[in-house]
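re: that complex we talked abt at group meeting.

here r the seqs, copy pasted straight from the sheet so there may be weird spacing, ignore it
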Amino acid sequence: MSTLKAIIGDVKASMGIFDGRDDDLYGLLAEFRNPGALYEAAGAVRKAGYRRFDVHSPFPIHGMDRAMGLGNSRVGWFTALGGAAGLTLGVWLQWWTGSVDYPLNISGKPFFAVEPSIPIIFELTILFAALTAVISMFALNGLPRPYNPLFYSKRFARATDDGFFLHVAASDPRFGLEETEQLLRDLGATHVEILHDRGTTDGHDE
Amino acid sequence: MSTVPHSAQTAQAIDDPPLFGADLSFHDVTELVSHHTEKKTPTAWFGAFALANAGLLLLVAMIAYLFWNGTGVWGLNNPVGWGYAIVNFVFWVGIGHAGTLISAILFLFRQPWRTAINRSAEAMTIFAVMCALIFPTIHVGRVWVIYWTLPIPNQMEMWPQFKSPLLWDVFAVSVYFMVSATFWYVGMVPDLASLRDRARSLWRRRVLGVLSMGWSGANRHWRNYEKAYLLLAALATPLVLSVHSVVSFDFAVSIVPGWHTTIFPPYFVAGAIFSGFAMVVTLLVISRKVYGLENIITVNHLEKMNIIILLTGTIVGFAYITEFFIAWYSGVPYEQYAFLNRAFGPYAWAYWIMMSCNLLFPQFFWFKKLRRSIPFMFAVSITTNIGMWFERFVITVTSLHRDYLPSSWDYYSPTAVDILTFVGTFGLFFTLFLLFLRFAPMVAMAEVKYVMPQADPHFYEGHGDGRAGADEPEVAPSVSPTS
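got the structure back, here u go
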């Protein structure tokens, strides 16, 4: 049971959804001055052994996946599957309707041939691949996610404007309030705040 | 530390000229773009919107009139069974090519300047395709059974004719619409989150909160997002090229002289890009001025658009000449007659409007001064779309009006209903575009920030050891939350 819980926790963590601790502690949110600082900090936090952390920035940062130790995104696999499904549907639809369900002899032409079927096979392949790419992207990201404890932080609103944040989750086994805060400050965080899962942030900064 | 850029879109090289004017900060970009969706609605917007709405009403009235009376209210005759409706359909679909081209193909070619214009170009694409879809729908005559074009099981046990280019069109254009709309929305999610985080009123926050899906700019999300965006671009690229190819099959697969040519797909695609870019220039020249975005959408960006207009206009002009050569070289008298009739027959006026607008006028863009001149490019963008409309008119009407049997030759002219329906689609187009300008982030903020030099983490390496604030005095320690 506990292993199942751990697996679910890991899957959710891969989506950037971290569980809070029983005492409502959600984690620490550190702000950095610029993308360069955030990049260095993410690498250092990973090197220090943390795994459940994420960075938040208004735009993707070059090399951040590698700094955070994240592998290649799996969206590509799902997209390939979606494309294969669309291709199969395109072939099957035209073959089955034209030569099985309602065969129509037009000037002795074949009921099904590859050449005139290409456009629709192509369109359906693209359609299914594109929609799967988007749906799997949102699913792997755990979106839509209306509730996120990070949104309690007033400062965090700048993550979609010009703020650069690093969030270490309290559910990380290495997490310790004092040590983690010290680490973040040593890395050049300009501001560190505690996040709670229910309720509000500590309010020290207001 | 070496890093491999994990996206197709790399930041600028050091010695390139700056992409954006002035010294914009990240916050400036957010402010410049978001503020237009937040301020009080300007009176001028209401004026423009009222005008556009009048056009939309006209469209609705004309369509209602058509449905009541049937396609006899149009100027169609025998042999010209395809008139304004098809011309307008191809015209609007063509315009709808620029957005996805800019978003997808320029993304794959790593053209960072696209970020300033892709959002509005994509919006334009979607609205243009909506205008386009109206025409084949209302042209079928019995519009209440338009769903027969879709493979829906029914009591007659009939299926669509999958071997018909007209059905390919249904699939191509509707798939194009769905994929473009998806691409547009996905690109907008981070920007909707930016607007959400700035929202003051509760309802605005709620609506934007739902639309932005709880986006928080997490890198775990950006990782999947960028992959999905790259894949969408890679999928949309062949799609955008296929759509106008399929539209050209409507003509090319038939055996009508003047239509039955293999040059049609590439020539139609080039023409579509040509007209679409012209429409983007028309719209951006106005909106960058009205919305004070000259620093984000710079003259350099417009110049690049004009170079593409020059290129594609020349390709299209070359195709016109090639058609003539092939007609002569084929030795087929019907084909030869179709082209001579085009240039010197009763529709010569339309042909020469097309030639001068599409082949001649863009050639002025060889001069740097002219392609950087706002009034000049505005004028050429308008003539380009006039020329491209006439191209479709020439192809459709001149090929049909004199076919194999001289006794059935006739002259086609549109009726008022034809013309007013076309005018009405501009009402629909501008209604939607004005709503977009009012409510959506009209520039892709996240993407613009991403290609700014200070977005590169290595930009800061000259300053200290790369860590923020190692030697910056402003890094004052804040109050420790644990103390």
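couple things i noticed - The CA atoms of residues 319 and 451 of chain B lie 37 Å apart. The radius of gyration of chain B is 25 Å.
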